[in-house]
Structure formats: C-alpha cells, structure tokens
C-alpha cells in the first residue's frame, strides 16, 4: 500500500498519544515498518503489548528511518525536533501533527531543517487523550494541512504521497501563517466558544436544570470542552494573536445579535442568522471539481509553491502526488461553487 | 401501547412541521387515532398521501379529540390555542411544543385555559424544517419539559403518562419561567454562539481556507446555525431577556479567557477550561437514582406541584405516572452525583 512516489517505507512515530498513536497504528496496518517511542514508560509497555517495535530512546527509534512523525505536546516540539534531526539521516523526512504551525516552522528553519521538515496538521481529534483513545481510523480521510517551503518541495511531495496512500488524506497545502490564521476560526475559536458555554453553565445557579434539558445544540456546542484543559491551553497560547483577533470578530458578531435582540428587531436578527446559515450551507453542500497539474520536478519550485498555496487558500486539497521522470503531477480538487455573498 | 393513566386515545396535531409531524407519526405508529392539520394545503396533501386523517379546517381536526398538540411557529401559538380551545371539549387536554414557554403560558392563562393547557417542550430538533424532516423516532427518549400549573394537575398527569408511554420521554417538570431560564443556556444561547461562529467565518476573507480545514470542533459548533433563520429568531425573541442575561454571562467568560490568553497566563487559561470541562464531564457521566412518590389524586395539589418543580430544578425527570383509586404515583430519577465544584 505504500505510495510509489512516497518511498517512505521505514517510519517512526515519536509521542504516541491520541494523534501519534493513531498515526502509528495506521502506518502499521498499511504494512510499513514502523517504530514507536513515547516519553512515558507505561505507554511504551502498552505499545509493546500491542506488538509495536518500541525503543527505549528517541534516538534508537528514529535511527535509519525514512520519515519521522513528531507528535508530542506543542511546547515540546522544537526541542524534540532537534533531537530527532540529530539522530537521523539528512534524507529522512520530518513532520509534526501540532495544531499550530508558525512556531514549530520557525524553530525548524532556525535549526536548518527547512529542506526536510514539513509542518503538518491533521484536522481530526477526539475529546479524550492518550494512546487508549487512538485508533487506526481516526485520521482516515481527514483534511491534513502540510506547509511546503521553498527548499523542502521534495520532502513535501513524498509526504503528500504517503498521506494520500496510507490515510486517504485530503492534503491542504498552506504556509504556516496561513494555516494558523485559518485554524484560529476553524478550530481554536470553536474550542474557546465551547469552553465559554460549558463554563458559564458550570457557574450558573441553574446548572442542574440546564443539564437536564441539554440536547443537540448544547451537546454539540460543548463537545470539545471535554478535552484536556492543558492541551487546549497550549493550542490557544501557540496561536495567541490570531485567536485574539478572531475572538474580537466573534465578539463583534455577538454584539450585533444582542443589539438586534435587545431592540426586538426581527429583521436584523434574521439577517445575522442568515449570514451564519450561508457559511453552514457552503460547508455542507460543497461540490469539488478535480484537475491535474504537472510541474518540472527538479527546476525552480516557485511556480509549484505558488500553485499549492493558492489551492489551499481557495479551499482546495490534493488527493494525489506522483513523481515520474523529471515531473511531479498533482491531483487536486477545488470547491465547485463560487463563494456566496 | 396507549398509557392506561393517560386515557388520551384520540389525538390531533395542529401544525405538522418538523416537530408536529414527528409527534403525529409517532402517535400513529403507537396505535392512537390521530388527526392532522397544517395551514399549508400542500402539506395537508402530503399527509393524506401518507395515510393520515387530515381535515380541511383546524376545527374539524380537533373536534371530539382527547388531546391536541399545537405545533406551529411560536408567534402563532396564542391565537391558534384560542381557536383549538373554542373547538374542543373542556376535557380535551391541550399542549404545545414551542421552544419558549412563558409567553404561551401567560396567553393560555389569560384565555382561561389553565385547567387543560400544559405548556410543553421536547428537547430535540434538527437543522432542517418541515414535514420532510420529521420522523417517528425524532423525539424518542427525549427530555420533554412539561409545565404543571396549580389548576392543571389532572391534565399534566395524563399528558405525562402519554408521553412516557408513546415517546419514552423523560418528562422534566418545570414552571414556565424556570424552563425559559434553563433553556436560554441549554438551547437558545448555543444557537447564538453557533451563529456567531458561522457568521464570522462567512464574513472572513479566509472563509474558503477555514471551510477547507473545518472538522469536528467547527462542524459541531456550527451545526444548529444551519436551521431556518426565522425559526431561530422567533425563539430568541420570545425569550429575549433571559437570552440577553446569559449572553452577558458568556461574554464575561469569553473576556476572562481572552485576558488570560493576552497575558500568556497558562494557569488562568487552564483554570477556565477546567471549569468548562467539569460541566461537560457531569453531562456525559451523570448517573441517576430512581425513586417512587405518591400523592393523593384529588386533594390540594400544592405538595405535588412543589415536588415536581423541585425535581426538575434538581436536574431530575419522570419516567412514569399512574393514577389509581385516589392516588397518583410517579417514577422519578434524580442525578446521583452531587454537583461538582
């Protein structure tokens, strides 16, 4: 099942919690030679019990590998990346799965890893944490952001091919800052809103009565508030400025709704809700048109990089990447409907 | 299947959209004699096509019925209730399924219907509207608020028995103002937050990139923003004061999160998120303890009413109501775990 273009047959996963564990299990199920390591001895034991090749040190786990997924908590990533880089060959592709990208991308560039580190973020998760919540199907078909850089196109292509082949990923190419800006609204602010709703109920004198009535809108709207507070806090802190910008925008929208409500202005209120519905309708009813694009494999990559970033910014994604003699070919999908309103 | 205590074998449903249609289909599947009416001729035709007894006028539909569910849009309820009351016998139990209760309860009292109108609100729904989205299972096992009044205990008991028997409802007894206060946080504010999140994305220059990354937290957090704007606006306007109060509370929580984030205060941020997680943990892990309570059927109802309202305020619900010679027996469930934090 390993992608021909990827050629990344020997993999390692460092940090085998919810996401890292899911990556590892899926790679193994796909037939790759995969080694695992986790800082917690108990987790390493559980990996061994599941038949995974586990080393006692990071260095042993990653030595001789073609690709390493660095999957620990966000604040640990820069230091762990340096350790993994020092213990691997210059041809080994490195990636991470953190929920913000600018910080780790900057750290990697400072470490001189721009050629082989490809920042990554699979858009999937669960309320629970840890290996016990991991599963080979968690990331199946997920939107998976990769951040191609000007010097790292070869690594980007190989990793894209692997993710498409093994995870059936929809690879969304974006620069790290673009990812963080979009993820603020797509993921980080939703976590804050879920927390504010659940936290307000927790403080309310009516808490028990509210929970007695809690059904779809409350259950859905608070689901991610069930996640580990430290994990969510790390995510928000690592994208602080963008999250604050978008929280201000959400606050302004809330103020408009409250003003319309206070004034009893049904038209204004309906108008705001109709704006919201338009985004939701687009999300649920998007069609995509497929196309193929080729670029010379070895030449200057400026055109390829610009194409990829435009694709991601326009809401598109890749479902194929194949490098043949002298050329790289992408299969890509763009939203078919023009943006509404 | 009809409840012995209910004795409400001949039912009518007025307004057969999402909720009314679901009520009708379930009552019919349970073997009741049920008649339907909708203001839209096309909907009446579709009901007839599905084998439902449909009348051309409200008055014909409700004549001679034991119970009538009044299910149109919120603003139409007081007038429709008056029409239905005028066309039915004094022994006919009336209820509604609107998402706010104080307004319709006050209107019913003003119409002298306190003895036979029981305000109701099943806590279930869907993003779509109309008979096409209705289904006999939509309300199965739902938390279903009923508002017992001092003069309407007999109607409350019979309706409770019917809802438990036919819908397997968890009947939550509350006064109308208590319902509206709790529903503000359990349902109305979640709709506003979903709208603010989706609406902010709709206005964002990054909209397409955000939607490309949208996964669990965004999809869940915006789901109810897909509902009809007019329906949501009616709901919010009918509970305006409580919604504004709770929006202010949510805004204060958001301000605390933003301040902690701006200050880079990981401890303060984690603390707020831990409060949120506590509510979520209670919601997901509540256990209930069952008990039975009896009251004299015909005497002064003050004790029974106080018991019922305390039950709902404490997060409890009824799963049984049986009237025997001179006594009414309830099967009730209360959250087993003491409130956290």
Provide structural commentary:
- The first copy, chain A, has helices at residues 18-29, 41-49, 58-62, 77-86, 102-110, 153-167, 176-203, 207-213, 216-222, 229-237, 240-262, 266-285, 302-313; strands at residues 10-14, 33-37, 53-54, 67-70, 93-96, 117-118, 120-122, 143-146, 170-173, 288-296, 317-324, 327-335.
- Chain A is of the alpha/beta class.
- The first copy, chain A, has two domains: 10-175, NAD(P)-binding Rossmann-like Domain (Rossmann fold, 3-Layer(aba) Sandwich), CATH 3.40.50.720; 180-284, Orthogonal Bundle (6-phosphogluconate dehydrogenase C-terminal fold).
- In chain A, the strands form three sheets. A six-stranded parallel β-sheet of chain A has the order 3-2-1-4-5-6, with helices on both faces. In chain A, strands 7-8-9 form a three-stranded mixed β-sheet.
- In chain A, α11 crosses α12.
- The radius of gyration of chain A is 21 Å and the shape is globular.
- The model of chain A is unreliable at 1-5 (pLDDT under 50).
- Chains A and B meet through α7, α8, α9, α10 and α11 of A and α7, α8, α9, α10 and α11 of B.
Summary tags:
homodimer, 341 residues, alpha/beta, Rossmann fold, 6-phosphogluconate dehydrogenase C-terminal fold, six-stranded parallel beta sheet, three-stranded mixed beta sheet, 13 helices, prephenate dehydrogenase (NADP+) activity (chains A, B), Prephenate dehydrogenase (chains A, B), 6-PGluconate_DH-like_C_sf (chains A, B), prephenate dehydrogenase (NAD+) activity (chains A, B), NAD+ binding (chains A, B)
């Amino acid at each position: 099942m390993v992608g021909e273009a990827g050629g990344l047959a020997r993999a390692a996963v460092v940090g085998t919690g919810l996401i890292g564990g899911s990556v590892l299990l899926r790679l193994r199920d796909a037939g790759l030679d995969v080694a695992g390591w986790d800082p917690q001895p108990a987790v390493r034991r559980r990996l061994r019990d599941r038949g995974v090749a586990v080393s006692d040190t990071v260095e042993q786990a990653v030595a001789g590998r073609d690709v390493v997924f660095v999957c620990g908590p966000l604040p640990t990533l820069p230091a762990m990346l340096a350790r993994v880089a020092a213990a691997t060959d210059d041809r080994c592709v490195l990636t991470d799965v953190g929920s913000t990208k600018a910080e780790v991308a900057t750290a990697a560039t400072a470490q001189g890893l721009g050629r082989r580190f490809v920042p990554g973020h699979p858009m999937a998760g669960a309320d629970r944490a840890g290996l016990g919540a991991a599963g080979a199907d968690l990331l199946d078909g997920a939107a998976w952001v990769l951040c191609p850089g000007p010097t790292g196109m070869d690594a980007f292509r190989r990793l894209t091919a692997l993710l498409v082949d093994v995870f059936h990923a929809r690879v969304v190419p974006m620069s790290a800052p673009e990812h963080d800006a979009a993820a603020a609204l797509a993921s980080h602010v939703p976590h804050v809103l879920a927390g504010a709703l659940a936290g307000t109920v927790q403080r309310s004198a009516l808490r028990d009565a509210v929970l007695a009535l809690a059904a779809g809108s409350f259950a859905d709207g608070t689901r991610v508030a069930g996640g580990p507070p430290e994990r969510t806090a790390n995510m928000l802190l690592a994208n602080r400025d963008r999250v604050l910008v978008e929280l201000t925008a959400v606050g302004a929208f809330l103020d408009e709704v409250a003003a319309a409500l206070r004034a009893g202005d049904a038209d204004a209120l309906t108008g705001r809700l109709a704006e919201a519905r338009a985004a939701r309708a687009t999300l649920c009813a998007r069609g995509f048109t497929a196309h193929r694009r080729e670029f010379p494999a070895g030449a200057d990559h400026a055109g390829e990089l610009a194409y990829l970033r435009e694709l991601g910014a326009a809401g598109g994604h890749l479902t194929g990447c194949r490098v043949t003699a002298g050329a790289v070919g992408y299969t890509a999908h763009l939203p078919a409907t023009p943006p509404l309103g």
